[in-house]
Amino acid sequence: MSDLKNYFKYIDENKEFYIDELAKAISIKSVSGDVSRVSEVEKMGEKMESHLRDIGSKTIIRNLGQYTHPNGKTLGLPSVIFGQLGSDSSKKTVCVYGHYDVQPAEESDGWDTDPFVLTRKDSKLYGRGVSDDKAPILAWIWAVQAYQKVGLEVPVNIKFIFEGMEESGSVGLDDLINREADQFLKDVDYFCISDNYWLGTRKPCLTYGLRGLVYFFVEIEGAHADLHSGVFGGVVHEPMTDLIHLFSKLITSDGKLLIPGISNTVAPLTEKELELYKKVDFSIEDFKRSIKVGKCIQENPVDFHMARWRYPSLSIHGIQGAFSGEGSKTVIPCKVTGKFSIRLVPNQEPEKIQALVSDFLKTEFAGLQSPNKLHIYSPEGGMPWVSDPDHPNYMAGKRAIQQVYGVEPDFTREGGSIPVALTFEKATGRNVLLLPLGRGDDGAHSVNEKIDESNYINGIKLLGAYLQEVSKL
Amino acid sequence: MSDLKNYFKYIDENKEFYIDELAKAISIKSVSGDVSRVSEVEKMGEKMESHLRDIGSKTIIRNLGQYTHPNGKTLGLPSVIFGQLGSDSSKKTVCVYGHYDVQPAEESDGWDTDPFVLTRKDSKLYGRGVSDDKAPILAWIWAVQAYQKVGLEVPVNIKFIFEGMEESGSVGLDDLINREADQFLKDVDYFCISDNYWLGTRKPCLTYGLRGLVYFFVEIEGAHADLHSGVFGGVVHEPMTDLIHLFSKLITSDGKLLIPGISNTVAPLTEKELELYKKVDFSIEDFKRSIKVGKCIQENPVDFHMARWRYPSLSIHGIQGAFSGEGSKTVIPCKVTGKFSIRLVPNQEPEKIQALVSDFLKTEFAGLQSPNKLHIYSPEGGMPWVSDPDHPNYMAGKRAIQQVYGVEPDFTREGGSIPVALTFEKATGRNVLLLPLGRGDDGAHSVNEKIDESNYINGIKLLGAYLQEVSKL
Description:
The first copy, chain A, is about 35% helix and about 20% strand. Chain A contains 14 helices and 20 strands.
């Protein structure tokens, strides 16, 4: 792969420029969830559009209209920035996606430094959004620019999609993608998303699966108002007691789902799949230390990966309507809404799981013979997504990692969701590769978010190498 | 009882004066829980002291020092007003207790009228604190004043204790009572508290029992921070799941306590006690309608009364640390504190119940084999209180009710607590009678609190007749 030697050298030589540019991006407080920062989000979108134009890309600013913020205000949605570089029909076309908005951050949350001032320390770069997702979206720009600077032809046509609403639910994006399937996305051969993380801190990975989600609201209603436990305790059926009994039927303390029939909905494990889990480089001891727990449900890595990636999990998130404050209160809450969700895996379909769970809860509730009223609500769920890790798009990613890092990547899945991956696949039928730049300890969404300098700079090389590998397919 | 004929006539003739005076008391917003109304509470205390002096009572203002309000501010405690009327060693001495502070109230809570303007409608008097406890404390004043006005000797010595902190935990009162046991309270023969309600709306009652309380905080702690259910769901032991399982072991949906050994701690039911429950005038249908529930756990009155009064109950109040807001959040809470309480009955001792429950929860938790940490905290509990309904003090109350209402009172207990009753009894060894004036539907602590005009006026007669009956013992 000697043809990228100068390319890599150029990138190494421009490290300070890339970090300076990242610092500029970090200083823009593009928090999509914060109504007071609407203009900062828009400013960051304009910056990305300007970068795209600088590398010769045509740009289109897509206005998605308005939405209702959780605070009740009607606000304009941040623009989605489309970029198109090249339209050579002899080349492959890659569509890359990233987001320019970030999670909220205040120094008072516990940051060691100002989250909106890029801070270098011990070869790490700290700041809100540095890893999620500003270094990756800039890396796409620099990867292209480096081709141009060293006099190499950009090996593929590229379509860029940068959105500013990812941290707030990507409102309107799915509709846009579906509308553009036969337009802007018509001739895309491969998708690549760089918006997740290595499994650990040592080894790059390619991510080929994500879990889906169904969320349940279980409301139990008794008397017309909250009651005094002294006056009414012992004679009324308490909604909290009913809810606790229902929820105790869902899952065991060690994570076994108790909903009858749910295990039949999970795709059988294949030998080939199992082999992938066995190869993953991972330390459960490091994992436990990082979150300060003494024991995991699984104590061997293969079972551990499968529990996060290929089996459903159920988490009880909380109860609305009960007493949740400090101190003591002797109330019998009259209406409580318990909330839990199930992470879905192939071949679970949200609608079927919703019906299975609802029916089970209704049967169990009937068994309680409570006069209270049960109401179950489950909004539209999200499908799980699994790609083919042997697909040429993944092979291109694998060879790019070998070039830059000199190792075979891990093939991983993730327990959470990146709904846009499934949306691209469903809308176009094309393969989607998740190609992360940052490490598992980057602390996206948390305080002291960072990216290692080496991950940022090697990430630029990696994305460039990936584009070249795709061009050879 | 012809000697009270003129006395009762005088009271009837002065109805408008009594209502005007009650209106003045209601206009003072003596909300002890509201820091912005400290001066109103003090003003109401001064008013009661002035009333006591008007009827010839000596008064002592007891300053209880300072306390920390839940908002963190250090505030002066409202004064406790002592009054002493008469010291004739040939007479019996009765100590009466009441409180001049009230619960919070805002018209915006749903009141039909201004809560601090006494409003007459359909022979009812509406306003915050009208039944709890301003009509009763004024009724003590008017009962004494009427003796004086009609030229009768007040038949007993009276010691008054009016506090201004009852609705905010009576901070400092127990200590004061214990200190005064050999001083101000030394020669008290009988205690009488008018601060509760008839069981229903038709028949007066004497209340001879109250339940006690133990409150439990059950904290379960897992990882060092809240976790993302997508990333961690399926591999960590979730504190919420553990808590739900523990709480499901406490009580059935139909109110049966499941803690082993707890039923052995309840005093056996006697025939005599059972007879009292059978006599109580009560409609379960009215009760269910009033709180809009379709079914009670007990559908016959004797079982119903026993469940509220002579058997323990357990209520789960809520969970702190879990997601309790609107909408959805896919969090695995790292530390949750579940809260429940048990209403205690004779012969349950708080310390023993606390040990029984803690041991049970620890055993059940060990059975879960969870690596999470369990911490149980239970603050000092309150003993149940039961008096002897055949005691002369109760017979005096019974005869007074017969004189004023022409009926035999119900003998009731209550499911809640009035801790001062037990404090008086323990500090002095003297009998305590609960002699309510208002009806069960007065709505104390709720919106549109009221007292029926007849209950207020007959209440003055009742307290006066009680004092006379005590003098004959």
